[in-house]
Fold this protein.
Amino acid sequence: MSETTERCRFAPTTSGPAHPGTLLAALLCWLDARQRGATLSLRLEDVDSTRCTPQSAQDMRDALSWFGLDWHDQCLQSDFHAQHAAALDELARAGRLYPCTCSRSAIKRAGLAAADGGWRYPGHCRERPLPDGDWRAVDAAIRLRLEPGIVDVRDESGLPLAQDPSREMGDPVLRSRNGSIAYHLACVVDDARAGISRIVRGRDLAPSTAIHVVLQQMLGLPTPRYRHHLLLLEQSGDKFAKLHGAVGWHALRERYGAAALCGVLAEFVGLSDDASPCTPAELIERFDWGRVRSADLALRWTGHDLERIDTPARDSADRRIE
């Protein structure tokens, strides 16, 4: 492996313990970067103070370290609030922001499906101005006013990402009602600040890519290269994530050693021919995206073991997030 100038990152939200989906996403991102000789950062996404705590951030660090992953550097997303605010200032000066008082229930009642499986904002507030042009004076959510048009962006995996985000996603929230900077803005600003040139992440985030490209263009920031990978799903077909109560790493650790769990996940997704224990480092030499399963994989936690479910899971794009 020769070192490159590529910069990659793994950026989990720290709103709960790592689960199998977190560990698989971290493993794939880590292997991709290590085989390329790229710089790899761990960015702990903790800007939502209502859901994220310093304790949960440390727990995420502990989980990834236990699993055998290391990083060139680490940071907390909340440390860069000044850069997030500066980006909002720039968008406000360009007339791109507006206050929104619509509740989630009202948006859901409008019944407009979004490309990510949620509900598209119908645009009720989009003609409202910012008071005195200052987003800081707004006691409501702040949205980005999108213009119609197709955003053509490519994915290394072949996953189609081209989208008209104004029609398929609706105007996104950039600052929530509680004052937290929203995912779309923080992600774009932080990737540019860190010089991230390559992003490997789960395909549940693929529908957000066009919005990220629009923000990059509005703020004059570079667009990284993207690769989206499979998801681990609950038996019901929902993403295997803490949102749905998936088993956390503390319970997994009681059943598996780190190498044993790595071997199980590697076999599940095609990185290994069997589930023999292995470390992430032992997978680097033979890592190849061509071996990685492309279809989402349904799992269940029996209370003692992780088991794959043979029934084909639905495409992640068809699931609605409640």
